[in-house]
What does this fold into?
Amino acid sequence: MRVLGIETSCDETAVAVVEDGIHVLSNGIASQIDIHARYGGVVPEVASRQHLLAIVPLLKQAMTEAGVGWTDIDGVAVTNGPGLAGSLIVGTNVAKAITFARNLPLTAVNHLEGHIYANWLHTQDRQPEPVFPLVCLIVSGGHSDIVLMKGHGDYTLLGRTRDDAAGEAFDKAARILDLGYQGGPAIDRAAREGVPSLELPRPWLKGTNDFSFSGIKTALLRMMQAGGISNKANAAASFQEIVVEVLVSKTVAAGREYGARQILLAGGVASNTRLRQRIIEASPLPVLIPPPVLCTDNAAMIGACGYFRFLAGKTDSLDIDVIAGLRLG
Ligand code: KG4
Ligand code: ZN
It folds into this structure.
């Protein structure tokens, strides 16, 4: 079964063709990072206009690269939340138009669920299949969730952030240190040149699977304002080390507590070099992490998730709407 995946929840327009939920036939992404970099963050109105400009050419490109025509597509999967409403509307309406015109089934995918399914996609350095029950850490610009997954489409939220998401914390720390946009990759790069030497608070929130990252960010801001940061690479490494340590230890502990057979990472922050390294070192369970290009927003993960939804008979009607605050579990 070939699924056309469409993703426009934030600042990447993405269209992909995925076969049987695992083979990526094409994975087109039009990034808006350079445009939003001028403003230091995503401007929602600008994002939705860019999606409008990019989506149709990208759709044609993704189908050409996959070597498929409309008769080769068996269904369409589209992200309908969470995300920016004006951005989600573009992808959702394109998906509705295609399914209406071509008489194809439609399935609406939760963006976070999509991130998890990036782990099912086959890549060159093929990793093992995900095995249930598993614990997944989803870390993106808007979420830091620990999720227990007992089967396809079966999610229990074990923990979440009480304030800033991990990606948001990286982005804010980069702004404080004036390391540029996009913050996460900027901290990742800077940290490679530094050593974690600053004393910053470690927010453990003991006895819970929840996270809190705003205190570390505020401590970093105070240090910067007080002139206490002479080496930005060391500051970036210190900040990153604490965030990674908290994410890793809570995820590994949740895996143990809930009898998981594997740990999965997902979301943009899962492309962080130190996080990838530390969780593999610290976990007694096998760890699956998609390659960086499938961790950040893409449509192949939406196509993969869509395939498993179609298998489970989860189709949606043309009445579906976007849900900016959609949750998982
Ligand atoms: O999943 P994603 O592409 O979009 C959302 O669904 O939010 O995640 C974007 C987030 C941003 O906050 C970005 O700074 C962060 O992921 N990110 C990283 C890295 N690459 C992207 N954070 C840390 N290290 C990275 N290498
Ligand atoms: Zn995302």
About this structure: Residues 111, 115, 140, 267-268, 297 surround zinc ion (ligand 2) (CB under 6 Å). The chain has eleven helices and ten strands. The first helix runs from residue 33 to 37.
